[in-house]
Structures are given as structure tokens and as C-alpha cells.
């Protein structure tokens, strides 16, 4: 099962934005890894994945990890239901004022647990002015944020995944393919 966006409708305003950007900046459209600090991503291609169901939560806090085991060097994905409910590119999907977000305490806990990737089925783990700041913070700790993950309603809460990506020089995002094994 693929967890990356393959086919989707992109609203005209996003296409216009993409067309106005250098080619490497268009990498922010679809499923991607953010790397605002331009770090060279070095991750294993095969990773343990844990999906945490956080549907119907507006604020995703540290207590969501109670009674959940997280493996070191793993990929933790938060399923908010936004992508499956609204569809990528919709106005509702990109409405950051209403979107759920991860608290700083939760992000710090995930970093303490040495996860390598923090994923979400949204356009970011935090929004507005906090979006880029939290991505840079996570990246400085050797972990990365993966955005716009799909098909979380079709997978188990734990599995292994194969990741493929190609990093363009100077890009602040990297298109990523995620396939369950």
C-alpha cells in the first residue's frame, strides 16, 4: 500500500504558486520531507512505522503516547483524518486555523525517543508562523517531518515501510515515496 500522494487534484492557486517557484521548491506539493535547513537526509530505506490515531483531536499532546510503545529510529505517523475526509488541496485541508497540531511537548518527547521521522496526514505538524520553526527545530535534532501522508485508513497501526526519495540540491522539501512492506 502506498502512503504517498500519487494522483490528486491541485487547486489553481497552488499550481500558480508552484509555477512561480524554482523547480526545487515545487517539492512542497504532495507527500514530502521538509528540510528547511538543507540537511543531507541520511535515513535507512526500510523503517518501522507506528500510526497513532488522533482523529477528532484539535491539540495533539504528549498524553497521546500513554500506553504506546515507540521504537527507536522509527517513523511515527499521526492520523488526523484530514486528508481522507477533505482531500488534498481542498480549502478545508489547507485551513490551518482549524487543523490539529502537535504540541511542543509531544515533539520533544518524540525526539527524546529518538524517532527519525514524524509524519502527518496534514500540511504540517504545526501551522502558521510555527510551521517552519518546528520543522527546523526537529531537523536540527536529526529528525524530519513528513507531510501529506495518505491511505492511513488502509494500514495497521504497526508495520514496516520502504522509503524512496531523491534530494535536489538547495531544496527545502524532498518528494518521498512510502510503501508498506
TrEMBL record:
Alphabetized GO MF terms: arylformamidase activity
InterPro entries: KFase/CYL, KFase_sf
Coiled-coil region(s): none
GO biological process: L-tryptophan catabolic process to kynurenine
Domain of life according to the entry: Bacteria
Pfam families registered for this protein in UniProt: Cyclase
Protein name: Cyclase
Taxonomic placement: Bacteria, Bacillati, Bacillota, Clostridia, Eubacteriales
